[in-house]
């Protein structure tokens, strides 16, 4: 919760910022309705997973992030006393109009995290965690929000009475007894990949999500970051053990492993056109980015 990035940052909470790397302009995104400071933490509901707890559109103008603050929008949802630290809503900030929109309300029985924006910024997928499930204490559902229509879909249950919807799923995407660490869509929306606590990575075809391709690493690792190449032929994954895995999407074949990278690989992504693969690592002393280029 650095307090010296912008002037007047005295809330003592984690915040979300937008940086223009060309001009150096830095904008505090997580602010209240009147421009006041947020009264709760933003951007990092799970310690150590801040880099995959928010996402930015391809044009850099929209940011989706979680926040426990109560003053970002009107009626953000109610948190019971003593549960504010795990009562996170999900918000979309549009830099073009300086506007914050509530996507998912705060709840006392869980929180929302791991959001992902599609290339055009229209669709938002995210995981909703519940702490009141039976027979286990914790469970999660996978949701998809349409910004154009303002609809939110539960991808685990059959959608009801929503005519004209362009993408419907009628089968189960539930993964019992495993937790989801990362989610990513291919740019064409055809594939959805998830990394899970059973050390496996799954690729779902959104036209038939009952049929999943299961990928495995060589160790096996715990994958905490994922990204598809631009043409959706490759999937890259970064692990807690300092390895980057690259799979062939159609066959599920592990093509190669880049190993012995210092620290956890907290983010991995392809450049536009997929000529480069970038990994962001977090070690004991600092974070750094490593770039590989196709030969």
Question: What is the fold's blueprint, element by element?
Answer:
Layout: E1 17-19, E2 26-28, E3 55-56, E4 62-67, E5 89-94, E6 99-104, E7 110-117, E8 123-130, E9 139-146, E10 151-154, E11 180-185, E12 191-196, E13 201-205, E14 208-215, E15 223-228, E16 234-239, E17 244-248, E18 254-258, E19 264-270, E20 276-282, E21 287-293
Antiparallel strand pairs: 1-2, 3-4, 4-5, 5-6, 7-8, 8-9, 9-10, 11-12, 12-13, 13-14, 15-16, 16-17, 17-18, 19-20, 20-21
Can you offer a commentary on this structure?
The protein is built from no helices and 21 strands. It has strands at residues 17-19, 26-28, 55-56, 62-67, 89-94, 99-104, 110-117, 123-130, 139-146, 151-154, 180-185, 191-196, 201-205, 208-215, 223-228, 234-239, 244-248, 254-258, 264-270, 276-282, 287-293. A hairpin with a 5-residue loop joins β19 (264-270) and β20 (276-282). The radius of gyration is 19 Å and the shape is globular. The model is unreliable at 158-172 (pLDDT under 50).
Q: Tell me the number of strands.
A: 21
Note the gap between the termini: 40 Å
Quote the beta fraction.
35-45%
Summarize the biggest pleated sheet: 4 strands, antiparallel
Low-confidence stretches: 158-172
What's the rounded overall pLDDT mean? 80
Overall SS class: mainly beta
Strand order of the largest sheet: 3-4-5-6
If helices are DSSP runs of H or I spanning 4 or more residues, what is the number of helices? 0
Radius of gyration: 19 Å
Helical content stands at: under 10%
| SSE order, one letter for each helix or strand | EEEEEEEEEEEEEEEEEEEEE
C-alpha geometry: globular
């Amino acid at each position: 919760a650095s307090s010296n990035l912008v002037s007047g940052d005295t809330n003592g909470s984690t915040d979300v910022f937008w940086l223009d790397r060309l001009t150096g302009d830095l904008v505090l995104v997580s602010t209240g309705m009147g421009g006041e400071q947020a009264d709760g933490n933003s951007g990092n509901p799970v310690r150590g997973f801040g880099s995959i707890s928010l996402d930015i559109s391809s044009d850099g103008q929209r940011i989706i992030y979680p926040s426990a603050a109560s003053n970002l929008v009107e009626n953000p949802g109610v948190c019971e006393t003593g549960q504010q630290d795990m009562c996170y809503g999900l918000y979309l900030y549009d830099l073009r109009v300086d506007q914050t929109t509530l996507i998912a309300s705060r709840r006392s029985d869980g929180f929302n995290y791991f959001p992902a924006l599609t290339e055009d910024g229209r669709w938002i997928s995210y995981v909703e965690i519940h702490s009141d499930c039976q027979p286990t204490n914790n469970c999660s559902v996978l949701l998809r929000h349409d910004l154009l229509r303002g609809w939110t879909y539960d991808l685990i249950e059959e959608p009801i009475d929503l005519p004209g919807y362009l993408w419907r799923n009628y089968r189960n995407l539930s993964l019992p007894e495993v937790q989801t660490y990362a989610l990513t869509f291919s740019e064409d929306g055809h594939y959805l990949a998830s990394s899970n606590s059973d050390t496996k990575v799954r690729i779902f075809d959104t036209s038939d999500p009952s049929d999943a391709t299961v990928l495995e690493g060589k160790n096996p690792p715990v994958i905490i970051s994922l990204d598809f190449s631009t043409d959706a032929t490759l999937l890259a994954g970064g692990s807690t053990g300092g390895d980057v895995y690259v799979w062939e999407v159609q066959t599920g074949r592990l093509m190669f492993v880049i190993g012995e990278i210092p620290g956890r690989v907290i983010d991995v992504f392809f450049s536009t056109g997929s000529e480069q693969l970038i990994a962001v690592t977090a070690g004991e002393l600092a974070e750094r980015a490593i770039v590989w280029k196709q030969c």
